[in-house]
Amino acid sequence: MDRIEEKLSILADAAKYDVSCSSSGGKRKNNGGIGDASSSGICHSYTEDGRCVSLLKILLTNHCIYDCAFCVSRRSNDIKRAAFTVEEVVDLTMNFYRRNYIEGLFLSSGIFKNADYTMERLLRIVKKLRTEHRFNGYIHLKTIPGASEELLQEAGMYADRMSINLEIPTEKGLKLVAPEKNHDSVRKPLAFIQNQITHLKTESKLIRHKPLFVPAGQSTQMVIGATPESDWEILSTSNDFYKNYHLKRVYYSGYIPIQNDNNLLPQIGTQPPLIRENRLYQADWLMRFYGFDVDEIVDAANPQLDMVIDPKLSWALRNPALFPMDINKADFASIIRVPGIGRQSARKIVQARKFGKLHAYQIQQMGIAYNRAKYFIVCADSQIVLGTIPMETVRQQIIQQSIASKKYFNSPQLSLFS
Amino acid sequence: MIYRYDGSFGGFLCAIFSSFERKEFPVRLVTQTQFAASFFEESRLVETESEKAQRVFDGLEKSIGRTEAHSFFQAFLSEDSRAIQYAFNLLHAIFQGNKNILENYGDEQVLYFSQTLKKVSRERHRMKAFIRFQKSSDDLFFAVIAPDFNVLPLVISFFHKRYADQAWLIYDEKRNYGMMYNKVSVEEVQLAELDKNTLMHSSQDVQLGTTEEKCQQLWKAYFKSTNIVARKNIRLHLQHVPKRYWRYLTEKQ
């Protein structure tokens, strides 16, 4: 293995805990150079853990002045260190992009010397790609907390997306494992970039060719299961960041134990909380695409998501008065709240019923999870049932069916054997 | 009535033209090569005339809009005779004035048509994702594919825009044709058997630069390092990257 391959192995390995690999929201068009954004993003491959590979995701260096207990690159960790040169990152990106391996670059870094010094190096790379190589592919750039606003402002001209990780969902949790850090240092730059985006939007009504500034918006990531926050606390934080910083995405990264020297953290050998992570993403989708408020999903009385069933089903079971719903009459916003019916199928239902009342056999063909949905809907040929639905029975039946079909395998008991 | 056509999209559109011209419906559509003569059913050969085909397509665009009209081309590329027959029937209904018929998902034919579209569209997306170019020593970026459906025509503009400053060739070895871009325009090409073998087993024969091998090696190293072993989930991996695509993926060699 030569030096560049060794560096790539070390710095990709160090970057892999950042789960974001989205390349959506790009708007760059090719004019005489190389690259043209696909606005919905493209996953070019998938690793054996089933995660998407869309971008060349690397650290510029894994040298770091901080000592965050949950991070593999923390300064007290005895690992191989490496650093790319600006040229090396540019060459790798161009060579991979030209072969259609990737949509672009995801560049992060450990903090060496200080925030500005690190940010300035990151900036040099993206600037070179955009100006010298006329590269119009996707660039996701990490904002280094504490870097000057001038540097962030310039970086935003070249990057499609910028992000800073909250790491731990609450300030209290963060202090336990990374006393040198705080949430304010994340909030401040997120707000700065968001203000620039908004500012440009209002201003650009007056100018013809508006310059692109972080067109794919900002995102953040929280580590799940390293510290003892409830799902309610986690989702409330997400809600806060979606509402107040207009983030495009909040990522949840199930903590993978990397050391045994810190008693506060799960020890090596502990399974990463993959089911919980999945449930959080489902809840996140409910908030972003299904019109749910965070307190409909979790609240003080139910602070944890149900691990056996998904959060939409869980919500429906807690609200028997709203069901069964007549799919020939209910509006789109109500239909998408039915367990087992997604946005696409709901759209089909709303269009198809204009041609005549829909029967159960038609609904079943439209790609909905009918075995779950059937308890909550009325079709043209459904028998009329009086009284409320016995939700505890429904819950048991759905769980039984899913165990039998093994399709809906997310119950924790089952996954032990799969 | 059976209509025999040449299997091209133009021929398909001309079949619609004939069906209206001769007031013949229902029609069963078969390609010349599939056709087996029957004593009981009359059949007619449909000539493909590009002018007629264009008239039909223009009429369709006018009637239901560009995107929806294009969806008939996409469904046609599925090469699925059932989907093509349903497309024919739906087209017939649209020209009879039933313009919104494609929204009637409660209907078996509409639903099957829409499901076919989804399958074709998924395959098109996969080709955008899974095509891997290799760079030959004369600077041609080439890739070999064998998609489930005939989606190459659907990805050309994507690659054209993206790789405007490099010459490339994408070759469908299953259907034996390719598209070649010479930095000016894209042209359809067919390779002789020998050249095809050369492309497929490329590393020896088409001369690859040393940077090409190096690049593939780096990509494989990256692919390995970015995986998280503690999260291993082969089932999910296979769901996203079915095995039939592996032989074309550099990182899976």
Produce the secondary structure layout.
The complex is a heterodimer of chains A (418) and B (253).
Chain A: H1 3-15, E1 45-46, E2 52-53, E3 55-59, H2 86-98, E4 104-108, H3 115-131, E5 138-142, H4 149-158, E6 161-163, H5 171-177, H6 184-203, E7 218-224, H7 231-245, E8 249-254, H8 274-289, H9 294-297, H10 311-318, E9 325-326, H11 332-335, H12 343-352, H13 360-365, H14 370-373, E10 377-378, H15 391-405, H16 412-415
Parallel strand pairs in A: 3-4, 4-5, 5-6, 6-7, 7-8, 9-10
Antiparallel strand pairs in A: 1-2
Chain B: E1 2-5, H1 9-21, E2 28-31, E3 43-45, H2 50-64, H3 66-76, H4 81-95, H5 108-130, E4 134-135, E5 141-145, H6 152-162, E6 168-172, E7 177-181, E8 186-189, H7 193-200, H8 202-205, H9 210-225, H10 234-240
Parallel strand pairs in B: 1-2, 1-3, 5-6
Antiparallel strand pairs in B: 4-5, 6-7, 7-8
Strand tally of chain A is 10
Strand percent estimate of chain B: 5-15%
- Give unreliable regions of chain B as ranges: none
Q: Supply the CATH class of the largest domain in chain A.
A: Alpha Beta
Strands of the biggest beta sheet of chain A: in what spatial order? 3-4-5-6-7-8
CATH fold annotation of the largest domain in chain A: TIM Barrel
What gross morphology of chain B would you assign? elongated
What is the count of DSSP helices of chain B, taking H or I runs of 4+ residues?
Answer: 10
User: Could you give the order of the helices and strands of chain B?
Assistant: EHEEHHHHEEHEEEHHHH
Return the average pLDDT of chain B rounded to an integer: 93
The shape of chain A is globular
Q: What structural category arises from helix and sheet content of chain A?
A: alpha/beta
Walk me through the structure.
The complex is a heterodimer of chains A (418) and B (253). With 418 residues, chain A is an alpha/beta fold. Chain A folds into two domains: 3-297, Alpha-Beta Barrel (TIM Barrel), CATH 3.20.20.70; 311-415, no CATH class. In chain A, 40% of the residues lie in helices and 9% in strands. The longest helix of chain A has 20 residues, at 184-203. Chain A starts with a helix and ends with a helix. With 253 residues, chain B is an alpha/beta fold. Chain B has two domains: 2-123, no CATH class; 131-252, no CATH class. Helix content of chain B is 49%, strand content 13%. Chain B contains ten helices and eight strands. Chain B has helices at 9-21, 50-64, 66-76, 81-95, 108-130, 152-162, 193-200, 202-205, 210-225, 234-240, and strands spanning 2-5, 28-31, 43-45, 134-135, 141-145, 168-172, 177-181, 186-189. In chain B, helix 1 (9-21) packs across helix 2, helix 4 crosses helix 5 (108-130) and helix 5 (108-130) packs parallel to helix 6. Chain B starts with a strand and ends in a 13-residue tail after the last helix.
